[in-house]
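Design request, tokens follow.
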């Protein structure tokens, strides 16, 4: 293979290239999954036809056959899961390296805008000095005025 056809970290930085990479890997891996599952089913049918070995307990040939072919089914599942892991990589890369800087920039701009508003003469009032609205002041009379100046969520 030439260097320009190989996938590397520099080629996976754009969403288009990551999508192409994922589709290429799916095209490579899905036939392998199908072949492994077909082989596992055929092998399972073949080992179920074997006669019981002398000294087997009832059901032991079935258990032996199942334990023999289980790794083939697991291999198919693992290869199929590799495709899901590649798709998860694409999503996580997008969230962490493409969306996150934009979100942080928006938060910084919003914080700067709020700071500029507060400097414009609108100082934030302390919580205790702001009286609660009338509908919140009707608390439990046994506590008296202890909680009168507090507001929820401030």
């Amino acid at each position: 293979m030439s260097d320009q056809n190989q996938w590397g970290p520099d080629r996976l930085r754009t969403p288009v290239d990551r999508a192409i990479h994922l589709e290429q890997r799916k095209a490579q891996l899905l036939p392998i999954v199908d072949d492994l599952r077909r082989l596992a089913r055929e092998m399972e049918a073949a080992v179920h036809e074997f006669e019981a070995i002398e000294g087997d307990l009832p059901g032991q040939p079935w258990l032996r056959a199942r334990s023999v072919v289980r790794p083939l089914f697991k291999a198919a599942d693992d290869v199929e899961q590799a495709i899901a892991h590649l798709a998860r990589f694409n999503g996580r890369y997008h969230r962490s390296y493409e969306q996150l800087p934009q979100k942080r920039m928006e938060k910084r701009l919003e914080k700067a805008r709020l700071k500029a508003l507060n400097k414009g003469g609108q100082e934030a009032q302390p919580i205790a000095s702001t009286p609660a609205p009338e509908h919140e002041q009707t608390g439990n009379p046994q506590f008296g005025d202890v909680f009168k100046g507090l507001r929820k969520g401030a």
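Comment from the thread starter after seeing the answer: thanks! The mean pLDDT is 82.
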